[in-house]
Design brief:
Two copies of one chain form a homodimer.
Chain A (H helix, E strand, L loop, with lengths): L17 H13 L3 H10 L5 E2 H7 L4 H13 L3 E6 L2 E6 L1 H10 L3
Antiparallel strand pairs in A: 1-3, 2-3
Chain A binds a DNA duplex (30 and 30 nucleotides) through helix 3 and helix 4.
Chain lengths: ~100, ~100
DNA sequence: TCCTTTCATCGATAGATATCGATATAATAT
DNA sequence: ATATTATATCGATATCTATCGATGAAAGGA
């Protein structure tokens, strides 16, 4: 994904490609909620994490945590797998890295 | 700001400090809109940029661009100064750098 | 089979946000 | 002074989002 190219800011300069802007905004939007920031923070410190532990860690209802996980999943920032009754979530390092790169990393 | 510490994900692990989560989420929320991503992208490629050029670059009304600039200003990601009739905006590199650092830079 | 547990989805609702036209403000020019 | 131009703010509205309780789906245990 090409981002932050070297351009000159003037009236005739084309804005960043709308599709790219949209994709990036969606990724950042996934991190625009404090609960989701905290979830990502947790996942960043471990291999994977059971949903049941996330439910226990936040003072929010189980459907609300499930909703936040879906937002993160749809943004591609996390992925999940089921093993038996439990679902395990983990970060997608490449997606996080792309965001970091967008910010000039 | 301490972020992404090395923790073990378990039922007893404390979530990230709520205040820190809130601050980070606010910064990311400022980048959660495609127009604002494109504005930041523009500012990243130049010293500073006149609002009049931003108004010309996007197919949005002048109040809408002004609104987006306010969101970015309130998040600390950009700053502005007036010279005569015109207002000039520029990035705050430190703020962008903090976000990058949060993502593991 | 029936019950329990885990997680996702649905439906509803209160609050946030993006957008615009209208208006205010402030500087400059005539 | 009046007009013009650039930017910010206000008020309204349509859409989006976070949250919850209720329900569904799928697995395991008694």
């Amino acid at each position: 994904m090409k981002t932050l190219p070297i351009l000159c800011c003037g009236p005739e300069t084309e804005p960043l490609d709308p599709a790219a802007s949209e994709t990036l905004a969606t990724r950042f939007r996934a991190l625009s909620d404090p609960t989701r920031v905290a979830i990502v923070n947790r996942l960043a410190s471990t291999e994977e994490c059971c949903v049941c532990d996330l439910n226990a860690a936040f003072e929010l209802s189980q459907p609300t945590i499930s909703h936040h996980l879906k937002v993160l999943r749809d943004a591609g920032l996390v992925e999940s797998s089921r093993r038996g009754t439990w679902a395990y979530y983990r970060l997608v390092p490449a997606a996080v890295g792309e965001l970091r790169h967008t910010l000039g990393g």
